[in-house]
Amino acid sequence: MNTNKKTREPLFHLIKRANVPAWQPWAIRIGALLLGFIIMGILCMISLETNPIDAWKYMFKGAFGIGTTAKTAKFKTLALLRDLSLLLLFALAVTPAFKMKFWNIGAEGQVLMAALFSMMCIQYFGGKVPNVPLIFICLAAAMIGGIIWAVIPALFKAKWNTNETLFTLMMNYVVIQLIIFMIKVWVPNGSQSLAPSAYANLPKIAGEDFWFTIIIALALTAFMFVYLRFSKHGYEISVVGESENTARYIGIKVKKVIIRTLIVSGIVCGIIGFLLVNGINHTVSEKDAGGRGFTAILVSWLAKFNPIFMILTAFLVVFLTKGTEGIMEENQITNEFFSQVLIGIMFLLIIACEFFINYKIVFRHRTAKPQPVLAVSESQAAGSVDDRSGEAAEAPVEGASTALQTDETADQAAKEE
Amino acid sequence: MTLAVWISFLAAAFNLSAVFLFGSTGEIVVEKSGHLNLGIPGVMSVGAAAGCMTVYSLMKAGITSEFALLFLPMLSTILAGGLMGLLYSFMTVTLRANQNVTGLAMTTFGLGLAGHFMNGLKANFGKIASASYAYKNFFKVDVKLGDTGFVNSMKQIFLSHGFLVYFAIIVAIVAQIILSKTRTGLHLRAVGESPATADAAGINVTAYKYIATIIGCAIAALGGLYAIMEHLFGRWDYVCEGFGWLSIALVIFTIWRPGLAIPGSIIFGALYILKEKWLVTNETIKFAIKVLPYVMTIIVLIITSIVGSKKAQAPGSLGTNYFREER
Question: What is this model's ipTM?
Answer without folding.
Answer: 0.86
